Amino acid sequence: MLLTLLFPDYIPIITRNSIILNKPEEKQSRLIDNNNFEIFQTALKEILCVNNIFQGNNIIYNPANDKAKEIAEKLMRGRKKVAEIKSKGNNESVLTRYISILTIGTNTMSLEDCLNLNMF
Question: Is the pLDDT of residue 55 over 60?
Fold first, then answer.
């Protein structure tokens, strides 16, 4: 566990809203909760050297070659598309999702064929 590596003298206890670090020899404990979590998170990112891969909540990609650059760009386009869809809300009906699944799942049936299906 990462916490035992970071705090070898303490016994970590994870609760629903906090992390308690107990030091049994000295009957001493430390608490990480909502009040000091951001400080802990910043220190943890610095210790693990991950500050340079994040820009806010987004991951910064540093591709090694042209193919890696293409993959990174594709991932970023996908993330932007998902963010746009989430921001618009989900107005898609169950029927349209079902038809979409049918057209993708069956290689022999086109979208037009699926729309022409009846219930019987």
Answer: no
Q: Which of 28, 32, 9 is nearest to 20 (CA)?
A: 32
Answer whether 13's CB lies under 8 Å from 20's CB.
Answer: yes
Type of residue numbered 20:
I
CA distance 97 to 103: 10
Query: Region 99-109: what's the mean pLDDT?
Result: 76
Q: What tokens does 86 get?
A: 């989430």
Distance CA 70, CA 66 (A): 6
Residue 111 structure tokens: 């979208």
Q: pLDDT value at position 109?
A: 74
